[in-house]
Sequence to fold (171 residues):
Amino acid sequence: MHKPIALLLTGTLILSSCGTLRDSRINPRNWFGSSREVAVRAPAENVNPLIPEEEDKVKFNKDKSKEDTTILLRDVTDLRVEQTSTGAIIYAAGLPTRQGAYDVHLRRREGGDESVLELEFRVAYPEQATQRGSEFSRTVRAAYSLSRQELNGIGLIRVIGADTARETRRR
Fold:
């Protein structure tokens, strides 16, 4: 009679402690919460638009493959962070202004606070005109991988678009 009661009490105690671990900071599934939309701050540039930028005098030498033709995506619509065995993967979805967006990627923005990871959501558009299309047909997605070492000092992840940004904080 004493053994079943002891086993029942032990099982009850172990099972009740699972809820505590589920909500703790030790659990890697609780590292980041759901994302929310935030206002975008335009970066301050010290460029005079009346003075032309210096160009290469020899035009035929220019290597077009090294030019960055990407621009910031208009709207960032979704952001989530999922843990992996080696760190985390940041998934983002966005809405470009028209169909045909390609070379979609998240680019790390350098500088600023080291506890904040800022990623720019960048896309390239074809030179020819394309239709606007429905939101579903224009939606693009990108991912960015982080190792555990890179994740250590990060408390906030922000994905920036031209008009909107989304961010998620570590719990």
Remarks:
- The chain has a mean pLDDT of 83.
- The longest helix spans residues 2-22.
- The first strand starts at residue 36 and ends at 38.
